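[Meeting: bench + compute handoff]

Bench side (C.D.) handed over the final construct sequence. Compute side (W.E.) agreed to return the predicted structure before the next meeting so the bench team could plan truncations. Sequence as handed over:
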Amino acid sequence: MINIKLLKGDALTLLKDVGSKSVDLIFADPPYNLSGENYLTCKSGKIAVCDKGSWDQIENIHEFNSKWVEECIRVLKDGGTIWISGTLHNHPSIGVILKKLKLWIINDIIWFKPNAPPLMQKNRFVPSTELIWIASKSKKYYFNYEIAKRISNGKQMRNLWIISAERHITSHPTEKPEKLLERIVLIGSKEGDTILDPFMGSGTTGVVAKRLKRNFIGIEIADTYFEMAKKRIDSTHLELNLGNFLENIKDSKSVQLNLDSKKNKKNVYIEPNSCIPRSEPHPPAP
């Protein structure tokens, strides 16, 4: 029997109610602190101030990160792993904290989006990646090498994951694709394990955990997103044939990276609320 536990409120408070060493895998997509006057986004083809919500406005992001990561490590089993998603805005802080806590850093995954949205500015490179730290309490942790190899068409899986951004299922601005979480859950846990997502958002982690017969604990602070996640997870059915499922999520045998081709240009997906730091105006390119 799969146990799904959804908690509405502040992760820093609710994590204290989760038992020590009770969780097998943690996936966290924390706030990147990108909302506010210092960050810009594109809305309807025009530059606008980025505002993902009050949950993405944190006075001291490093202190916040330290507190929730420490609580997550407390609830993580000795053989479990923690996967933390981020961008350059938040990723260095997480790395420092993992080192300070003397965790074993297993990998940094580079999630490359071949259809990343273009930039309106002409003073920086187009952001096309997100980063995922993977860490554990020691060198003895669960890692399903065989499933990783199977997904990667019989070859060792590399830390560069080419997964296209997808049109969002929900209105959550930072919704992750299910394909990304499917890899993480399959490689980092077994059926019947318990997965925790302290920043549940639209519920993608819970959907994948339930589908793949894992127990799930999800925490979400925003009422709207909590209800959205609950509805998605409640309507998710268990995967009854893992063999067929693995065949369907295998990497494409040939990955096309020619982003200048007409074919790929048609498939570019503009992700809503893709935020960048505000900078001084630059003269137009010659």
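W.E. noted at the follow-up: Residues 4-253+267-274 form a domain with the Rossmann fold fold (CATH 3.40.50.150). C.D. will use this when planning the next construct.
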